[in-house]
Amino acid sequence: MNQDYIIPNEWSIIEEGFEKDRVKSSESLFSIGNGAMGQRANFEEFYSGDTFQGSYIAGVYYPDKTKVGWWKNGYPEYFAKVLNAPVWIGIDIEINGEKLDLNTCEVNNFRRELNMKKGILDRSFHAILPSGLEIEVFVRRFLSADLDELGVIKYDIKPTNSDAKIVYKSYVDAAVKNEDANWEEIFWEPVNTEINNQQGFVQARTFKTHFEVVTFMENKILVNGSYQHINPISSFKTESKVEFTYKVEVKTNDTATIQKFGGYVISTNHAKNELINAAKNVLLQANEQGYEQLLINQKLAWAKTWEMSDITIDGDVEAQQGIRFNIFQLNQTYSGKDARLNIGPKGFTGEKYGGSTYWDTEAYCLPFYMATKNQEVARNLLMYRYNQLDKAIENGEKLGFKNGAALYPMVTMNGEECHNEWEITFEEIHRNAAIAFAIFNYTRFTGDQSYIPEAGLEVLLGIARFWQQRVNWSADKQQFVMLGVTGPNEYENNVNNNFHTSYCAQWCINYTLEQIENIKTNYPQDYERIVTKTSINAEELVAMKNVADNMYLPFSEEHDVYLQQDGFLDKDLTPVSELSKEDRPINQKWSWDRILRSAYIKQADVLQSFYYFEEDFSKEQLEKHFDFYEPLTVHESSLSPCVHSIQAATLGRMEQAYTFYLRTSRLDLDDYNKEVHEGLHITSMAGTWMSIVEGFGGMRVKNDALYFEPRLPEQWKGFSFKINFRHQILKVIVNKGETTFELEGTEPLEVYVFGEKSVVQPSI
Amino acid sequence: MNQDYIIPNEWSIIEEGFEKDRVKSSESLFSIGNGAMGQRANFEEFYSGDTFQGSYIAGVYYPDKTKVGWWKNGYPEYFAKVLNAPVWIGIDIEINGEKLDLNTCEVNNFRRELNMKKGILDRSFHAILPSGLEIEVFVRRFLSADLDELGVIKYDIKPTNSDAKIVYKSYVDAAVKNEDANWEEIFWEPVNTEINNQQGFVQARTFKTHFEVVTFMENKILVNGSYQHINPISSFKTESKVEFTYKVEVKTNDTATIQKFGGYVISTNHAKNELINAAKNVLLQANEQGYEQLLINQKLAWAKTWEMSDITIDGDVEAQQGIRFNIFQLNQTYSGKDARLNIGPKGFTGEKYGGSTYWDTEAYCLPFYMATKNQEVARNLLMYRYNQLDKAIENGEKLGFKNGAALYPMVTMNGEECHNEWEITFEEIHRNAAIAFAIFNYTRFTGDQSYIPEAGLEVLLGIARFWQQRVNWSADKQQFVMLGVTGPNEYENNVNNNFHTSYCAQWCINYTLEQIENIKTNYPQDYERIVTKTSINAEELVAMKNVADNMYLPFSEEHDVYLQQDGFLDKDLTPVSELSKEDRPINQKWSWDRILRSAYIKQADVLQSFYYFEEDFSKEQLEKHFDFYEPLTVHESSLSPCVHSIQAATLGRMEQAYTFYLRTSRLDLDDYNKEVHEGLHITSMAGTWMSIVEGFGGMRVKNDALYFEPRLPEQWKGFSFKINFRHQILKVIVNKGETTFELEGTEPLEVYVFGEKSVVQPSI
Questions:
Q1: Which of residues 401-440 of B touch A (CB under 8 A)?
Q2: Which of A282, A707, B466, B606 sits a CA distance of 20 to 30 A from A478?
Q3: The complex's ipTM?
């Protein structure tokens, strides 16, 4: 474990004590979000120490041109930066003329608590200012889960050894920069600022993308809990900032409070010239409810979310805290309400990566949202790709593919490729298969047969066409080969015949052909529409089938395993366990060319196929491949341990499964990769959920029924999870030697436990 | 042919007629240089049309940080930009109050002539200004080959239909930018400007690298050829510019002339605080000689150069012009006087590439300088690498190599790697072999046995150590393999077991071991010194030998050829001749991933080994490999046609050899690659020289003797070239059916023509 200051607690993330060198890590760990916006746990008041300011708005990005001398054709035109948004939380504080700055005070009893059950962040401390003035501070902050354009702050100050004149300078400010800006560029252009009584508005526009955002606020002052009719003693606006200054005089041990409503309204949801009115409307709704009711509603909204998605672990507080932290962050990042949005790998907690949508969404996140939300949410994730099919076809055309071949981007905000590391952009094409697999997975899990005829088949066809064109015939091998790819293991690039990619391609084509037959037979009207739109013809389908039937898959007779790629056995196959500690992590300690030449695997690659297509392989094959590849795997991607945890559990290797589980579930809390200050690993958190449900729970869906093979790690007394299976909520409770079910619904449900069928009756 | 405006002439490059869209191409083609500085053929006077300003100083560069989000360990820290230097040529002109600007005048009789025999650039034209004033202009410019800090301009204006008040505004200016600057950065920081009578000085410093340069000038005014005692009517200096304004009133048909001496003195040759004095000293020397004498000396200096390096071609003016243009540019770029300098791929004619030293120097340029200059010049090229050995070892260490393993940089200014395209930087390691091969080649040609014991062996050892560490044992193949490389064919990357690289590695180790034995026996003192310095030990040498003896080289039994790399036969082997015209050049028409996956070869790769190590292979093997690889070769590197021309000639395929020759010798004059506006392909020009000497002349050195197999292309009546062979000058004259020799020296020389020995007596 690399970091251990987070106090174990079943429902909260807690930090006690103020340590300046933890500030940036805690800013990530205590981030809050509501699907539409997010906020790192930056202090409201001025802080002169090392901090990473971060406010984010879903869907708002900046296309950063990558300028390099060695530009090559087909190289993506821009990198979509996650944009640091204008600040709405700012409240600078002066007490008796002294600025409050935790970097210069003596700070005692510092405590943060992120209450995951309620979706509320609290911070409290006792400070002795340089003058000797002592104060107690309590700050509460939340982003409304209901009114997703609204954030709420309550900031209490109690002087304990003197009367005090407290000045609150509450502001919104669009003069923000990205920490990762290459050349100190500014991404926001101020448009307008407005003051309306106690309300302030800053309208700003992103350069190039021209998103417009109004960042707004309204403040109220309370003393000892009672609202005061205090107007600002001054207010000012510049072209990018509005600030109100309030002065409150209080006696020793009285509490002065500022309540701040703030947030964002954006031009993708409102007309640009209506943005300030929209902001006023949000404030109107917030005022109608008032702080206390907003707080109650926040708790209710989160209670509802937990009702569907909670996992309990009995007898292991750290594991319990870990899984809830993961579930909480996933729900903070993506609510599923808006089909235009998706799940960025850092959510709203940092700037790294950029873009919002990776194959993580389909391969790792979909199962979580599918099982813990209404079906519509999972369908929205699929529709996101359907809506971007034209762009995926264009993307294929840019690279020389034709006839409707779709290559979905490696990373995207709007369907366009926005990644700029070309060996991944061009080569890591297995992402296309993840998108097809998600359609299969969704259909298998939900039983929703309508998605494929209505939308999915067009996506499948575009993807199958891509694969057909991407292979070439090898006269030497007398099979189709797939040259120049990068698999999920990004510690290789430009390899030939990556097993995972080729196997996926073969599967995609076969699945597509199967679905074409299915739709032709069962949805003839849809079939007609699709044939007209896409010009499918019989000849093409024969050619596709030929590719699938004659796909080369590298295999070693000697080792009796599929090879990750051609030439893999030329590598030095010394296992990771024999590397010295100084060599780890290799992505920090080794040069890139040494990594590329090594056999070391970043994350499941061959084993990713065994995860997707488990039923295609015997348990003996899984074991053989697991034993061949896992010892060479360094798990330096946050997406690695979960797949291995599930497979270890499947193989009954519970100790190993548990180790992988802990590593994935507390990756950020314990900062295994020493990078939590940059933000959290959101998408891998869904993998943690899979580790429990599919790993320890052994849940699978086959032939429209749920199958379980529950296995309890030694360290746990029991665990439980819930699944929304086809509009009924099944709770699965695993204890030593016993698995019980509770069904919330109307119909009895067949489940299989270790192959044995039983029927669960609705009990609630 | 893509461009045909250059008028064929044996000794000159001539352009007639003014075409605005040719301006940038002509600026490249009419570039002048003297080894220390260079100047594109920009107009002296203001030009409002499309132009690419370029003045360059040898050895002065800027380390441009590459900022990308996906930085990887071992990635070079900067890219060395070739810097656009301050302007010394500027002379703006006003006549009767009207600015002279060829973009707004009617221009007639425009003519440029770059007289290669004399090293002089002339430009003349007749212009009708918007007012109707007609003038005749003649401008002469040269960069002194003797005083290599000096440039000279003579600018004549004759009004032909009116009297005229002519204003010359002559300036030096350090406020220049690079055309390829990523973010409009300024690379020069002004330090000081000074005016001293008619002399002006601008001192400027490069950011980061802190080179200091004084750009200077002095002007004189003449009327009808007589010096006038005219002082500037005004002069001014800003922080980065000095300008003098002269006014001359002349009658119709009188000629007003400004003579300008200018140039650069730099801090690598003079103390920084002595730079202005150094500049004054250059001007003093120039004034002592005077314009006319400088011109005479220029002609003499070039006559001396041509005396050694000229090649004549009889009966083919275009071929003659082509080869002289190549020889002229090579001599303009690198004089061999300064061992700190090297041969940049664009010389002083453009900004592209960056850095100065590629493997081009050893593989392509060394033979030219070795044969047409004194031995010291070639030795300086080798010493350049010896002097950078420590940096090459450091470079190896950065990538994880140890024990003195040297990896020479892909591109360098000072020994540090300064290339930023990592698949080339890390992978294109055959460059190391080019450096070892050059030592062998130099020793073979010059017979100078002293270089290896004095310096070369340390370089060879560092390189051999690198190869030993770079391979790994393949348990599968039971041989050593070389993973993750890029060969000379940069249309592949990260391939395994590139034949050229592995073959070179094997050769390097064997040659090094051989030389260690040789030095041990014949230069025991040097041997002792080197053993002490490098800690060679017997065990290490055994391990090295083991690598060389068990090196895997990919070979196809079916095709009976060595394979460019593992898996090459998986590719679609459709020959280039079957590509449609729209697909060519593929580096402009295809996406990069399509290029990588294709079998198409940018330049000689397997055939590069056959070029280096010709004697290791039979002619039948050469033919088989040539017939296998050439049809897949797109020759999109300027370094490609020369090797193929030589090999085609060796195989007696004269028509093909001639086609390749024309393509290389007139690559820029005819702008085959449609990029001459960016600058010339300097290093490939040495390949052109090789095409004649080694290709058509069939010259080889074996066992300390010269061998020739002269073959005359059908299109030529004859050709001749000269060789400085071990301090005697041999002229080889090839005519139909007859080869004759003239020897300038003191000793009779044995030569072999088609294997038949004859002895040439000194005749001069």
A1: 420-423, 426-427
A2: B606
A3: 0.91
